[in-house]
Specification:
This protein is mostly beta strands and about 70 residues long. It has a domain at about 20-60. Helix content is about 0%, strand content about 30%. The protein has no helices and 4 strands. It has strands at about 20, 30, 40-45, 55-60. Strands 1, 2, 3 and 4 form a 4-stranded antiparallel beta sheet that branches. Strand 3 and strand 4 form a beta hairpin. The radius of gyration is 14 Å and the shape is elongated.
């Protein structure tokens, strides 16, 4: 999934330069009630000035279908 954000500046400090990062290692989001799922990496939109995490999302959102039952 390619994700595009509509956020143009950091809500905390007002900086306009944002970057993207992903959590490494075992830092994956796992779906509840799906024991055999490997989950999905979590990516973040980050302010390059103050480090505030502006937005987070999973790369494979389809893995979470049916988890609200």
């Amino acid at each position: 999934m390619t994700y595009r954000t509509n956020i143009e500046k950091c809500p905390k400090c007002g900086e306009r330069e944002l970057g993207r990062g992903k959590q490494n290692g075992y830092a994956v989001m796992l779906p509840i009630n799906k024991a055999m799922s490997f989950g999905s990496e979590v990516e973040h939109i980050i302010c390059t000035s103050c480090g505030y995490i502006v937005e987070s999302y999973v790369k494979k959102p389809g893995k979470f279908k049916g988890t609200m039952d």
